[in-house]
Amino acid sequence: xxxxxxxxxxxxxxxxxxxxxxxxxxxxxxxxxxxxxxxxxxxxxxxxxxxxxxxxxxxxxxxxxxxxxxxxxxxxxxxxxxxxxxxxxxxxxxxxxxxxxxxxxxxxxxxxxxxxxxxxxxxxxxxxxxxxxxxxxxxxxxxxxxxxxxxxxxxxxxxxxxxxxxxxxxxxxxxxxxxxxxxxxxxxxxxxxxxxxxxxxxxxxxxxxxxxxxxxxxxxxxxxxxxxxxxxxxxxxxxxxxxxxxxxxxxxxxxxxxxxxxxxxxxxxxxxxxxxxxxxxxxxxxxxxxxxxxxxxxxxxxxxxxxxxxxxxxxxxxxxxxxxxxxxxxxxxxxxxxxxxxxxxxxxxxxxxxxxxxxxxxxxxxxxxxxxxxxx
Length: 376
Known about the structure:
The chain is α/β, with parallel strands linked by helices. Helices cover 40% and strands 17% of the residues. The strands form 6 sheets. It has a 6-stranded parallel sheet with strand order 11-10-12-13-16-17.
C-alpha cells in the first residue's frame, strides 16, 4: 500500500502524495491516490439510507440543502461530481437544512446524528469504502482543501474526518465474539474475482456457493479503475486471508497479482489495454447490478492508460513459490481472450477444458470445483 502512496507519476500526470510519512497523516482528496480518493465524498460510493438511494455521500449532503422532496431525491441519487454542481447557498441564511420534509438545524445535535447515521450506512453497505477506510488504521485523517467555517459549509473537514475516524475506531472496538467463533470453525475461504463489466452477483458466484457448501465464498465488486482496483483487492486478501483466489478473464488478470495465495486464473485477460474489444471509452452497462445498485459505468482514456501501465508490471518479481501456487484454466474454444502462451512464459500448471471464454455450470462443476478441492 505504501508504494501506491509514494507513487509520484502516472501516465504523465504528476500526482501529489497524499500520505505524509513524517506526520503519519493522510489528506483525503478526490484526485488523490488510493485510499485517499475512495474516502472522498465525491467518490461514487453508493448506499441506501432511510429509504433513499444515494449515489454518493456528496449526493446525500448536497440534497440536504433542498426543501423540495423530489429535488432532494434527485440530487441524493447523483454521483459526486454531478451532485456538487447542484450546491446552493440559500440554506446559510437561517442555517436550516431538510431531510425528507423535516427542517433541521445545521448547528444542532440532530443534524450531527443524521449525518453520522448516513456515513454509518455507507460504511456498512459499501465494501469499497469500508475497505479503504480500514486500510488507514493508525493514520491521522485530514481534508486540507475543505471549508472550515461551519456556517458556510454542510460539513467541515473537522466534522468529516471526525466521523471517519469514529467509524474506523468503532469497527475495531466492536464485539467480535461471533466473528471469532465463525472463523474458528474449520471452513475454507475462497475469493472470487469477476470479469470486466460483471459484478459480485455473477452466476459463477452462485454456482460456487452451491457446489462448495464448506467454503465461504467472498465476491467483491471490483472497482473499474485498476489504479484503485489493485490495491483494493490486495487489501481485501490481506483482510480475508483466502485459501484460494479464483478469477475469470479480467479477474484472472488480477488474480495472478494476488501474490502469496493459491490462485486459479480462468482464461485470464493479461492484455486488456491492447486486445480487449470491450475496454473502450464510453458508458457501459454492467451485466448485473452491483451491490451499491449501480447499473452503468464509465471508461475513460485515463483508465485505459492505467490498464496499460499495470500490464507492464503485472509479472514483475515472480518467484518459484509463486509458480507453485498458480494454475491456469484455458478453454479450447476461447474466441475472446487467448493468453495461454503469455501465461506459460511465467507459470507451468495448466488445465484445459472444453468450452468457450465464459464457463458454464458443467465446467464449473466438473473442472473448476475439483481443482479447488485438490488445491485446498
